Amino acid sequence: MADLKYQRVLLKLSGEAVAGSSGYGIDVDQAESIASRIKEVREMGVEVAVVIGAGNLWRGKQGLEHGMDRATADYMGMLGTVMNALTVMDALERASVYTRVMSAIEMRAIAEPYIRRRAIRHLEKGRVVIFSAGTGNPYFSTDTAAALRATEIGAHVVIKATKVDGVYDADPKKDPRAKKFDNMTYIDFLNRRLTVMDSTAVTLCMENNLPILVLNFWDNTALTSALRGESVGTLVGGS
Predict the structure, then answer these.
(1) What is this structure's pTM?
(2) Residue 2 lies in a domain
(3) Alpha helix stretches (DSSP H) within 155-195
(4) For 132-140, what is the mean pLDDT?
């Protein structure tokens, strides 16, 4: 592990990461692809925790547009994250990676309740820990849950998994002149109002000096290269 830049990481995945080509639902093949990447990281000796969203199953914005209560819509999203977490857990277990799902909302039949010291102990024993149900509170995104859990478990970095190889000053798919940032400060990220990660999550990371690495999770080498300290994606940190 001496050659690793980060020895404990929090991987933030969107719900769309386990979706099919339509962007909705659960695609087991996608879950297996995620599991293979996480397994590769574990075999490097990295302790891995995961937070996954639920955009592939439910988007609270749709409910709000019809007058749904915000808290109810958010709780539905939290339940969706549990489904995604169980999907990824199953794929990891089938790949012989010991995994635990912990939930911020108690549901003992399918997930352990979130207990910080227990989560850390799982990581120390080499298990992948998937944190589900967000923070357990409405009005907070899974990005914020990722920043919170990463801080609590003493992660060395939050890895924001995307389909783009970093943060740009414009949409690289629409603007060929878009400039990629190799490094950014938290303040610059916030001032630019970038949507890669919500401002509450970034502020929490800033207050706890926790770096955020934005990279293309689907690049076959990006994640492992970043963990070895190579220049990959965009690193957000500093004042």
Answers:
(1) 0.94
(2) no
(3) 186-191
(4) 96
